[in-house]
Batch of 3 targets.
Target 1
Amino acid sequence: MKVVFILFLFYSAAYSQDSLSVYKQKADSYLGEQLYSEAANYYTKALSFGNPDDRKAILEKRGLAYYLDKNYQLAIKDFSYVIDSYKKEKSISNIFFLRAACRASSGDNPGACEDLKSAKDLGHDHTQVEELEGFLCQ
């Protein structure tokens, strides 16, 4: 009985990783083809198979797909989750920058300015940040 259970666990893990890979590849392909809604749908499917290590990258890409599809509120939600979950990592400076772009696009200039400051503090490209700050944060 133990052997059957171990084989089941092994099969389940392998199936899960295969499914995750398939969904991420499909989503990446749709993103490259500028089919943003479809990409977001496949990133959502990938989330159900991913482990916590995969979650950050999938949410970043799904947020980007939502942003490019002009679905700013869902993009902000994904970017906010990543920021809240990984706030100690310098690598999230780009996520602050993307969330700032979403906030600006949805009319929240004060929120965008806060995110731009955070992006700059975490080392995001100062030229990009300052250009957007000059436009939004007078």
Target 2
Amino acid sequence: MIILKKDDFLKDAPDYEDYTDNVANLSKEEKESLGIKSCNCSCKNKK
């Protein structure tokens, strides 16, 4: 009887990178161009 050995090229478990926060720091002009309204004051509309 001939025994054939098959090499596994795929890993048993995938290698994952460490978790990182996906944060984008946009300037005021970039926020305005994307239509995002933001201000650092206490708005009159907030209750």
Target 3
Amino acid sequence: MKRTIVFLFCVFGLFSCIERQYEGDERYVVQGTFVKDGKPLQHELVVIDAYDINSNVDTSEKPLDNNLNDPTYRYTVVNETYTDEHGAFKVSFPGGYYKYVIKLDKYSKFILNGKFVRATRVIDLGTTDIAKKE
């Protein structure tokens, strides 16, 4: 009887956990270079955020103008890194059913919809001048 109670407690405990759902065999790698007015942004924090798949994050190729710090957006930081002395960075994170956004200072851009992209993939953003709003 004691084993049954412990077993049921463990099973219910596992199913009651609220976690982000990621696929263990899928990873994304994002790389690129950030510059401002042609000069490399050195040692700047680059953050990858995962937003709820149903959020209103703009999925166009343009830099995001909407306020992603609005509390109505639910997101989680999935990884972060710093740019090197040339402004280059490379960061990886697990795949999942989320909208992924890259952020640096006040610049943010949608990079991937995990609902439609289901594979290990390298995303090369090239050189991005954050001073220019495209």
